Amino acid sequence: MAGATSPTPCVFCQIARNSTSTPLLHSDEKVVAFQDIKPAAYRHYLVISVDHIPTVRDLQRRAEDYSLVRHMLNVGQELLQQDAPQSNQYRFGFHQPPLNSVNHLHLHCLASPFIPRWKHVKYLSLGPLGGFIEAEKLLEKIKPLSSTSS
């Protein structure tokens, strides 16, 4: 049956459907945002897609994928600017497999400082090996080819 759910539903799908006690910081038809349960920084929010998209590797050079990631970034930026305006650095990005902890597309939105300081290591790019990909770099990667004029 199409659209059938697995016996153990994705925890982020449950949050997106508001079927948990997780307080939402933002909710619309495309994304929801909430605090990370294991914050690595002064402010650490997650913006997740409402639709189940497993990882950044499932995104393609399509207008809808580009629009979704751009929207996720905009929501994250607005939240951090509102809640941590005094922070001297913001980071926005995605962990790439095999280093992602939950197989559901989620943007990490971080306002420094990292707590403890060494936690920044978890949010470094490992170049061709993957690691953490900044949201802007992902947007460059998935920008639709037809959108070359700016």
Automatic annotation (TrEMBL):
Motif Histidine triad motif location, chain numbering: 104-108
Catalytic residue positions: H108 (tele-amp-histidine intermediate)
Domain of life, per lineage: Eukaryota
Sample GO molecular function, one term: adenylylsulfatase activity
Pfam family of the protein (one): DcpS_C
Organism: Citrus clementina
Matching InterPro entries: Histidine_triad_HIT (IPR001310), HIT-like (IPR011146), HIT-like_sf (IPR036265)
Record protein name field: HIT domain-containing protein
Keywords, sorted A to Z: Hydrolase, Nucleotide-binding
PROSITE patterns to which the protein is assigned, alphabetical: HIT_2
Location of the HIT domain: 11-123
